[in-house]
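Quarterly update from the structural biology core.
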Amino acid sequence: MCRKVAQSGRPAKNLATFPNGHHLARRLSDGKSHVEIPLKTEQAEIIRKARAGDLEAFRMVHEEYGRRILNFIYRMVDSREDAEDLTQNVFLIVFHELGRLKDEGRFESWLYRIARNEVYQAYRKKRGHPKGENPSPGDWDEPRQDLPDDRPTPQDLILREELGTSIRRVLLQLPPKLREVFVLSVMHEKSYSEISEIVGRSLLSVKTDIFRARRAAREALGQYLEVRR
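Predicted structure, tokenized:
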């Protein structure tokens, strides 16, 4: 029995999921719930095999979901080192507990709940909300590029770096209750029902918290949300 989750090298530096200001503006302004996408047949089959103890299938599960969980945890704890350690813990728990999951269709929500629990345990251990190790803006927070083939101008690079830094600052200013729903909704594009299941709160509470978090983000990031013509 494997007792350690295999690592496929260090995670890529770019953990941000915002392509650019265009996409960010749309995600912050529409206020709509994302559609919950059913688990693909091949993914469900991999999870079934992993539940049965297939180590190669579990490696594939880790490969598929590891980066998403790392991103979610990093956005919550603001520390690369802590996020990597907690992600490792999450998949060790998944490895030992996956056999008890009755419905593989609920795997992703179950996985995010485990990640969330690990985050809040880390909060309690530190008796507060960690500030993180202040990585440079270009290290972790540079938004993913979604531009034509022509290379970005120096001004584009500066604006994206500033946007990434501002996003990180906004997240740190949000209380964890709002931060988690903001990350799940805006960055991970989860539906209201998925978020409700992950955080264990009612749909009404989730919708209210997402609205408050988006409003705070729009106010703080307004200068970056103008659509460039």
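The radius of gyration is 18 Å.
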